[in-house]
Every structure is written in structure tokens, then in C-alpha cells.
Amino acid sequence: MPEVIMPKMGDAMEEGTLLKWLKSEGEEVSEGDPIAEIETDKVTMELEAEDEGTLAQLIADEGQEVPVGDAIAFIQGEGEEVPERSEGGGEAAEEAEEGGEEDGGGAQATATETEAPEEGETEEADGRADGRADGHFRASPIVRRLAEENDLDLSKIDGSGPAGRIVERDVRAAMESGTAQRTEDGAAGGVAAPEQPQQAEMQDFQPARLPEPTEEPGTRLVEPTRMMQVIGERMTEAKQHIPHFYATVEVRMDAAMALRKQLNAQLEDEGIKLSVNDFVMKACAVALRSYPNLNALYTTRGVELHEKVDMAMAVALDQGLITPVIRDIGSKGLAAISREAKDLAMRAREGKLQPDEYQGGTITVSNMGMFGIESFTAIINPPQAAIVAVSSITKRPDYDENGEIVPASMMKLTLSADHRIANGRDGALYMAEVKRVLENPVMLMV
Amino acid sequence: MAETKTYREALREAMVHELDRDENVVLMGEDIGVYGGTHLITDGLYDEYGPRRIMDVPISENGFTGAAVGMAMMGMRPVVEMMTWNFSFLAADQIIQNSAKVRYFSGGQVEVPLVIRGPNGGGVQLSAQHTHSLESFYGHFPGLKVVAPVTPNDVKGMMLTAIRDPNPVIFLEAGALYGTKGEVEEGDNAVPFGEARIAREGSDVTLIAYGRQVNLCLRAADTLAEEGFEAEVIDLRSLRPFDEDTIVESIEKTHRAVAVQEQWRWFGVASEVAAIIQERAFDSLDAPVERVSGAEVPGPYARNLELMAFPSEKQVTNAARRVLYEEEK
Amino acid sequence: MSADNEHSEDGGVETREGGGAIATSSERLVDLYRQMALIRAFEEACQRGFRQGKIGGYLHVYIGQEAVATGFLEAFKEGDKVITAYRDHAHALLLGSDPKEIMAELYGKETGLVKGKGGSMHLFDVERGLMGGYGIVGGHIPLGVGIAYAMRYQETDHITQLYLGDGAMSQGAFHEAANLAGLWGRDGQCPCLFIVENNKYGMGTSVERTTAMTDLAAKFDAYGIENEKVDGMDVETVIEVAERVAEQVRETGKPYAVEALTYRTAPHGAADFFEKYRTKEEIEEWRERDPIAMVEHKLIENGALDEEKLEEIRGEAKERVQEAVKFAEESEEPPEEELYTDVYSGKDEYMGEE
């Protein structure tokens, strides 16, 4: 009988929260019906049924965190019985991981096929076997249907077709002799709540000792959302494990602002309005051409340098933060970047990003300029090498080349870089290049 | 009332019926008039209806087929003979680009009540350039209707329907069977398109074919019956529109299917049959659908090679045995 | 070198030349001018729409050739039919199709002449006699011959005006259809007027580079079809020939062919930017004989209109075209269910899956 499992929606996802059941136990579901709302570390999404049948046994409760790959329910096909589950979902989780990274459903199917034995089905006959019979036996479609309709246990039938395929005449013979009736020992029993092995690991990221809530009047206890927890874990890990160093430059933005005004006037008809951040992201990408070692990931087997720049951009959400990625930003023009950034940000706020849109990335830009922040430092988004913090543009007196004081639009950019990947000089030269590009914005066009 | 007639006579009878019924009907083709038709389908008609309605045309398939499309757009009902369908490649631009599409790209302002008919398929040692089965070629194009009757009764009834149809109809005749006889209903026996015919009822395996392969399947069914298996034989007759339901209902009964076609295997009607069965009758299947097709070679000349190039009764019975999980013979 | 001389050299046979040989009334000439100005304004708007990306697919404009269809359709009588290839906007406009619906068709809108299903190359207005624009060079010629045959079969006195380009004359379909027309015409059964719009180039390849025998009219001799040439830049001369030969075809039921020597001063298609196949000088020479400018010149010369009045007529044409563009822009796209209609006539209108 098909399990409904917590799908793996991203390579960093270990568990998800079952927010809400959209169908209740005993309800009929068809393939593609939304059956539950789940929250991963990045998005809230609807989980769709991949099989047709009756939703049997809601294993997970609303609000419960479930490890990736663990069953949260079963879908009972016609004539099938609910299996007894003696173990937690660990086995299913392993299968899912073997089978594929992102698609929980596909992974499950793959695992089922690869382990399907061609002979010797009887070994599986006790316990959970008949519940999963359809996946295990070679049998023609009509045989499966007849088995369902007549309550037959296919494990008790020898197939006479090619490679042991059970064909119709085998079933007809078994029905006549009455040798394949399903026994009653597979009836539904209590199902233990699945264990959550990941929870123990999570403790590693918690500070050693936390105080108990005071629960005094005037206090209110807020439980962190799934997303806040994940952000907390990742940021804690990053800040504790990555040796950050910082480098700040002050960029005179007058030329870039003038170019932006000019371009926006021309692009108005197309509905494109370039933002300061679009310029900064493009400049950061252009500067990486000269200093490519900052476009890198810190991996188990060394520093992986990337030729293409996949730029993550931090987008603030009401309940957290997400970093959608503009792929190969170096090859894209300002208008394309602007369009894509706007689209990603909008869908991020609506919770509509697909996992592949916010996973990966080789460098990140975080912008707080819109809040009037004069300067800030950002935490590296692991396993990336660097993140650039963008502050607001302020009008300030500055000296021109003749030493005269002139009004200038100034903006601070602060690099946070991983010292295991780059040293201070690399960071400094890189930021100087970003500054040079932004102050000579025609460089953005080449 | 029914009478025994040849395929040829039944076909002529239908055209005569419509010539008499509708002044807009004309027959066009190479040597169909004075000569009487290469296959004598139109023999005698020139004398009766005259050159205005029985039009001999020069050897220019593209030209006269296109002219027929123009006539049809004006409300005439031309019935064009391709001396053999092999020559229709020369008219493919007119058939495909104009007759099939002009209704669509004119936003429904015109219709093309046109029949193009002629012998289809091989079997009489005509070799490569004169051996084609073009049902999947023409069946591919929306806007065309494609039929392939095999019995004298159907060829008459479907020709009546074809001439009355307001769309271009590709009428594929079983050329090798012009002389075969069968019962033909008297009068107006119009056979609707899109309805397959059950040529033989059976319960163990379904053989699906059209054109002269239907007869092959009937012979194979007799052989299988001797072995204790009752084969159902479906004659598709109409390929566009296509009768899916009759096939599905049969598979729900027999659980096994063999699709037979004279044409080449790739992209053929049999593939379409197999796809429809797995889409609509998957849970009834006891074995994968088998296809029996012509060999993937241009039509050869030598008799022995030609026989090998077309589906044989043995290939059909063995395919049936495979889906029945029986030993091949 | 005047363009007229060039024609004579090319063809080697006498060409009926312009110069206001017929006594066209001023009033009629003004009306012709109005029609041609509308075509020109319409085609220019199409070019703009194409550049703006509002018109998709291929776009072939009639700029420079206006006198041909304008002249020949003066001989059009109710019940007659017109069939042409893909350079078909002018024919629709001249037959009285609504410019709004034509433009809406080009814009791919439900209000289009063929409901947004054909586009620029497939204008049809069967009620007004337009049996279609067709996209395959030469492919429509057999249809036209069949349409003409049907007219006599159905015992009417209508005729078919069958327009084709110089490029189409290299197609087998032309030769097969012309042979049929000649054959059926012997019995008075094919009232088909072939109008060869020889604009000197099939796309970018000149007539000289595609056939050894460049007298296109004379090719009809091979099929027993009477033929002549006409200066296709002078609308009055075209009318004179058109009215005479159309009457002849109508009376005899025999086909007739006229080769109209003309020139497309616009590129072949809207995407044909680099005109490597002809010189700027050549285009300029032909522009001097622009069919519309020639009419303007005559109107001023014989005192029928002054420059101000001409401008007013051009302004009216532009206004009508602007209305058409506005209508096209504001019209809705075809509803999705239209995808599946008009595939078949009758009950099983659509046989696929929706």
C-alpha cells in the first residue's frame, strides 16, 4: 500500500512540519489531490497524493515535525489493507535518500522497483508483505485487478509468464483451487509514532545551556516557526564555524545613479525599473571576473571554484528570510537581472518559490539600504565564500579631483568572507574592484 | 436484401448511386473515362454520364487534385481517382496543404467535400515505388478523414458516406481485393465513419486490423480456434475518425491484443492502437500489446521476398500465442 | 533608362504602356486614388505593427504594386472570385473587406477576417469573392483553375481572377494547372483570368536568374492560353486591359493571361532588411514610377485636384487605417475554444482530445 512520505524538497532539508491535514482519515483521494499542507525550511506547500484510494491512518499530527522520507499517512487502494508498522519510518527515509535527492515520490518508486524480487515472494508473506505486494510482484495489470477484486494474495501464486510474471491463467487456477486467499493477519494495528532521529542532532546547534522561561506577567512565549528554526541553526553554524573577516568600501554612486536614471527613462515603456540593488549585484558579479576565488563553495573535499556566478539575494519575509538565486548572473544584462530579481522577490513573499529557485548560489548579496542603514555586516550563507552587505545611499560632502568640496551620493558595501577560502588581501582587492566598477558604471555594460 | 458482388462492382455501384442522386458529383482521374479505368472501377460510366461528369485528366496529380479542391470549395463534389495511392505523393501539397487546412485557415468560410480514392497497399509484385500503405501518412493530418474498407458491403456503404461528407476523405481501397466477392446490401447502405466492425467474435485474444489484413486475421483466427483459442477480429474500417471504444470493450473482454498492419512498424496505426489500449484498458491487460507489421524495407519485387515483407498468418498466430503465453509454432 | 524600356527589352514583345491612354473620368481617377492611398497607408501601418511585434509570422506588403490589383478589380463583377498568394491585403481591401477586420486578423484577434486563424497570408472573404490568400508559392493555382471550372459547371457567367507572382511560374503546380485550364478552356469550361504580377523578383532572386525564357506571358502559349503584357504601374492602362480581357473570358469561358510588369518597392517580407539582391538605384528608379505618385501627377495635371486635396485624401486613408489599428489593438484574442473549431465541417468537428 502506498505510503505518503514527508518529501525532500531541498538538499539541506532534514525534516518538515505537517501544518495541516487537508483531507481526513477515510476520505477518498485521487492522484494530484492536495492532502496536507507542509512547511519546509523555506516554503509552505501543499502535498499532493501520488496514488488513488482511501486516505488511511494519518500518522503525523498537525504541527508535528517529521523527518524527510518518513511516512505521514497511507493511501489504501481498493482491496488493500493497512499494514502494521513495527518500525518507524527510518527504512522509508533511507530508500528515499538512495533513490533521489529532491523528489520524494520518485525516490520511493525507484526504491520499490530496484528491490522487487522476481521469485521467492513467499518470504515476504508474513507481516507487512501483502500490503506491498503490488510493488513486488511481476504481474499483469489484469492480474492485479483480479487480486484486488477477489481478495487474493499474489505472494501465494507462482507466475508462469516470462521472468515469473503472474498472468491471468495463474490467477484463474488459484481462484479455482482456492489456494491464494488472503489471510487475516495483516489487519490494521496500532502504529507507533515515528521516531525523529534528526532531533538529537539538532541539539548540537543549540547553545549549551538555555534558561527556563520566567513566565512572569508581561511576558509571552513565542515558539519559533520551522523557518526561524532553520535560519537559526544555519546562522549559528555559520557564525560559529566560519572564520569571517570583513572589508568595507565607500562607493560614490553619482555616476551609477545617473546611468540608472537614464536607463529607466528608456526602459519605462517595457515596464522595467532598475534598482540600485540590480546595479550592485551586477557589479559584484563583474568584479568576480577579476577575483574568481570568492565565487566558491567550501566543501568536504576542498574549495570548489565556480566559473558561473549564481547570485543569491536575501529577501526578507514576515517570518524569516529566503535567498532566491539568479543563475549565471554574469551573462545577464541589467534589465534581465532586474526582471528576474523582482519576480523572485515577489514570489518569495508569496511563498511560491520552487526549491530549485532558492537552493544553491555561489555568493550572496544582502541589501538593507531601503531601511536607511549606514553600514552592517552580514553572516556568510554557507557553504558560500562570501556575502556583500549593501547599505543605503546618503548625500554627503566629498572632495572632487581638485580638492573642492562637492555633494556626493555615497554608499557603503561590506564584504564578509570566509578566511579559509580567501585572505584579507583578496577581499580588499575584490571590494576595490566592485567600487571601481560601480563608479565607472559603463563597466556594467560589458 | 443483399446480393453477392465484387468489391469493384460495389464501389462502382456507390459512385453511380451518388452520380444519380447529386448533380454536383463528378469523377476525375487518369484514364477513368474512355479507357474505363486502370482497374475498371469506372468502366462504362463515361458512356453513360459523358465527359462533363466523368473527367479524364492529364497525368498531373498535383494539378488535377488541386483543381478538385477548388471545385469542392465551390460546392461541387469531386471524386478523384489516384490510379494508385503511390502517385499521391505528387499531389501531397494539394491534399495536405490545401484540402486539409483551408477550412481552418479561412476561419470556417469554406468546406472541401472531396473524395480521393484508389488502391492502397501492395501484394502484386509492383516493387518499391508502387508499394505503399499510406494510412498513417494521411491519418496524421487533422482536417482529413481516412477510411480503409475491406468488404464489398463496406466499400459501397463507406463510399456513399464519403461522397456525402463535407470534408476531404482519403478513401484507401484494398487494391488486391477488387475481384473478391461478398454480400452487398441493396440501395442506400451508408456506413458511418468512426465505427469499427467486429469481423469475428471471440473471447481470448483480440486481433485488430484494417484493409486486407483483416482477412489475414480471420484466417489466423481459424487456426487459433483449432488450438482452442477464440480470437475476436476487429476491422477498424475508419482510421480518422477512430473508434476507440470498440477496441477497449473487446480488450476488457479478451485481455490480450495483437495489432496487424501491412505498413511499416514505425509510427504506424498499430502503434496508435497499442497506445490507446494501454491508456484506456491498462488494467484489463494480461500481456503487452503485440504489433505485426511489414518489414522495414522498400517493397521488393521477387515473390518470395514480397511475401516476407508483408505480415503472414504465421506471424499473426505466433503473436497471438505470445500474448496468450503459449508456445510459438 | 526608363523602366518602360527595360520592360520592352526584357520581354521582347510589345507591352501596352501607360500615360493615360484611356479616357478615365477625373471622378473615377479620384476614386482609384482613394483606393490606392488606402492600400498604401494600410501596408505602412502593417510594417509598423510588425516592427512593434504586434503582427507575427510573415508579412508581405503590396507597396509599389497597388495599380495591378486596383486596376484588375475594376473589372470584377458580383459572383466573380479572386484567389491569390500571400501578398493579399490589397485584394481584400479592394473587394470591400473591412480594414478593421483585416488589421485585426494580422493582430491575431477574434474579430479578424478569419477569426485569427490565418493571419496575413490567409485572408478570406468568400461572401465578397475572396477565395483566399495562400502560403505555398504556386499551390493556389490549381485551386483557382478548379474554381473557374466549377463556375461553368454550375452554369454561371462568373470568372475567376487568379493572381500569381513571377516566382510561382517555376512551380510544377503552375504548369499542371495552366495545362488543365487550357484544356478545359477549349470547351469554354474554364473562365480563368491569370494575372501574373511580375515584380521582377521571387523573394531575392530575379526572373533572369530563375528562367531562361523570361517572357512570362509567352509561357502561356504552351498551354493554348491567349496572353499579353501590361504596364502594371499605370492603373489606367491596367484598367483598359482588365476590362477588355475580363469581358472576353466571361464571354468565351476560355482562360486568358496578362503579365503585369510591376515592382515591389518594399522589401519582400518585413524581415527582409538587407536587400542584397538589388541596388538602391534600381529601387529609386522604380519609385519614380510609383503608381500612386503617377495618379497624383495626373490629377494635378488635369486640374482635378490640387496638392491640398490630395493631402486630404491621404489623411482620410491614414485615419481609416488608424481606426483599424485601434480596433485591432482593442479587440480580444480568440477564445480558447476556437482552437478546436473549423478543423472539420459537420458533426465531428474536432476529433482530437481537448
Brief summary:
The complex is a heterotrimer of chains A (446), B (329) and C (354). Helices cover 29% and strands 22% of the residues of chain A.
The main β sheet of chain C shows up as:
6 strands, parallel
Termini Cα gap of chain A:
58 Å
Helical amount of chain C: 40-55%
The overall pLDDT of chain A, averaged over residues, is 79
Give the ordered list of helices and strands of chain C.
Answer: HHHEHHEHEHEEEEHEHHH
Spatial order of strands in the largest sheet of chain C: 2-1-3-4-8-7
Low-confidence stretches of chain A: 85-135, 185-207
Low-confidence stretches of chain C: 1-14, 17-23
Portion of residues in beta strands of chain C equals 5-15%
The count of strands of chain C amounts to 8
Write down the Rg of chain C.
Answer: 20 Å
Class based on secondary structure composition and strand pairing of chain C: alpha/beta
- Our Rg estimate of chain A from Cα atoms comes to 29 Å
Note the overall shape of chain A: elongated
Strand order of the largest sheet of chain A: 9-18-17-16-12-15
Q: What's the overall geometry of chain C?
A: globular
Strands of chain A, total number: 18
Q: What is the percentage of strand-forming residues of chain A? A: 15-25%
Alpha-carbon distance between the termini of chain C?
Answer: 61 Å
Instruction: Please identify the structural class of chain A as seen in this structure.
Output: alpha+beta
Run of helices and strands of chain A: EEEEEEEEHHHHHHHEHHEEEEEEHHEEEH
